[in-house]
Amino acid sequence: MLQVSYIRDNREQVLERLAVKNFKQPELVDEVIQLDEQRRALQISSEELQSKANASAKQIGELMRTGKKEEAETLKGQTGAWKEELKRLTEQLAAVDETLQQKIVLLPNLPHTSVPKGLTPEDNEVVLENGAKPNLPANALPHWELAAKYNLIDFELGVKITGAGFPVYKGKGAKLQRALISFFLDEAEKAGYAEVMLPLLVNEASGFGTGQLPDKEGQMYFVGLDNLYLIPTAEVPITNLYRDVILKADELPVKNCGYTPCFRREAGSYGAHVRGLNRLHQFDKVEIVQVVQPETSYEVLEGMSKHVQGLLQKLGLPYRVLRLCGGDMGFASALTYDMEAWSVAQQCWL
What we know:
It is a single chain. The chain is α+β, with helices and mostly antiparallel strands and 350 residues long. Helices cover 44% and strands 15% of the residues. The radius of gyration is 28 Å and the shape is elongated. The two termini are 30 Å apart.
């Protein structure tokens, strides 16, 4: 979440960077600034009245001790009026604070200056490509046909049990999935990441803590009876380990990794381009997360990108790295790299 002080002091820059993200409600910036001005004015008035009331209480006590009862009663009346006004200001302040909070969470994070302008994935910037694309014979099978032929993944059984996008892995398919998870976790541990096992459901505060709420509310599975959300990525519970925690400089960097199943509604995803494992409602993910000083964050991100590229290299997969354009990056992101592997049978990057 952006800090109000930063928005207030850097209004033009904030508007410029939000435009790169194709943000459709720039008027929110001025609304936030105006609400903050109201909040600060109410805070000052409240503090002045509270100071008057405190001084008056001492003065009343002194008047009573010196026998000036009539003057003390007059001052009591004045103090009572101040307290009523203070109550009114306190209620106003709480209402403005709540409105300010509701508005500011609608503002996305500002994109880094290297983020290209654009609206769709076609506008993403290719940073690099690595590895030669292999040539397969004309009768090569896509992964969903291979999975059916060798009984590795059963998509229809998943439909019966739950619905589309919830595959059942079998035999060597299940072993391959488990082996990849172990490989990624082991490599993360070698790189200094401490593993954590995490809840698969989070509360509303955790959703707001990482920007999934209110931005991605429609894409998350919601357990209404308990007011909990199934996690769309392990990033959410890992990052929220440090929500409302003040870390000392000598405790940084904090490096965590974790494996979780992840759940996304992926509303509107239909057609041949999402066949097989291309777009799932439940999938497995190993996440790496670092908490670092702001001034080193982009350098650290480059290092994390190289770590993920190293995994793809060890697996022998041709891949490319994309720098996402403003219109394709996440709500909470300032800079996003996507790693895509080349699918020979489908002749596309995934």
